Amino acid sequence: MKDIIIIGGGPAGLTAAMYAGRAQLDTLVLEKQFQGGQMMNTNEVENYPGILQTTGPELSSVMYEHASQFGTQMAYEEVVGIEVSESIKKVITTTETYETKTIILAMGAKPRQLGVEKEQDLWGRGVSYCAICDGGFFRDKEVAVVGGGDTAVEDALYLSRLAKKVYLIHRRDELRATQILQQRILASNVEIIWDSKVTKLYSEQALTGIEVTNIKTNQVKDIDIQGLFIAVGSVPATSLVSGHVSLNEQGYIIAGENCETNVEGVFAAGDIRQKELRQIVTAASDGAVSVYQAEKYILTRQ
Fold first, then answer.
1. Is 130 known to be catalytic?
2. Is-catalytic flag, 259?
3. What is the mean pLDDT of each run of 10 residues along the chain (302 residues)?
């Protein structure tokens, strides 16, 4: 019997693990892949308080070490089901069934796909959703990034230091990224293709090029590239909890700033939660709040 089971090892889950361990709550973190979540896809982190500049993987490692020093246990297991209708909750993985007093849902989100033919087939053969993970494979090659937010611009800037040529393809005529990132991309050698979307992928054994269509003029052109990095947002990883907790129309868990879901003893933290701003710092904040609320819940039922 655990006090808290945290599902997900991103910044929300790791911060929750640190706070729970420090509170001497018997806590287990379940993560199916690797700690850090989407932080692992971030090359530069310069807006986390107290750390002037770092990388996503470095910050993930520090957060994991911080949580570990308070004795929190982490297991690399995939959660395939939960039971939350009773006071004692169950979390079911591919190998075990755990019992717990409370659950913190911190599964984050996964990259949104373009939905273009061959996209799935070319994943790992020229199509990528993680520039920092795969950028090194495209050194001195020609690549494109799709998107107009912070991640897309950061990816394009990162790739511009490795690739021979970088295109940034955006559906609108202005970027959604923060002003400082916009200034950097406009001053860089990245070529921005405005008002356009990728409509076709060309390949032999791997990606060889893309078709780009201007959504205002319908003008079509082909671009020869070897790498396509897709950064058009994310989809909440809530399929596990659909039918167990309330979700909004976009699939995010409905939970307020206290991180409480509609099910007693179940909390949501980080990018998986309905919120205005999804950043590492807000995910970390949720992790702290969710443990505070979980501890209150446990104490009221002793």
1. yes
2. no
3. 97 97 97 87 83 91 94 94 95 97 95 94 91 89 97 95 97 96 97 98 96 98 98 92 95 96 97 90 97 97 80
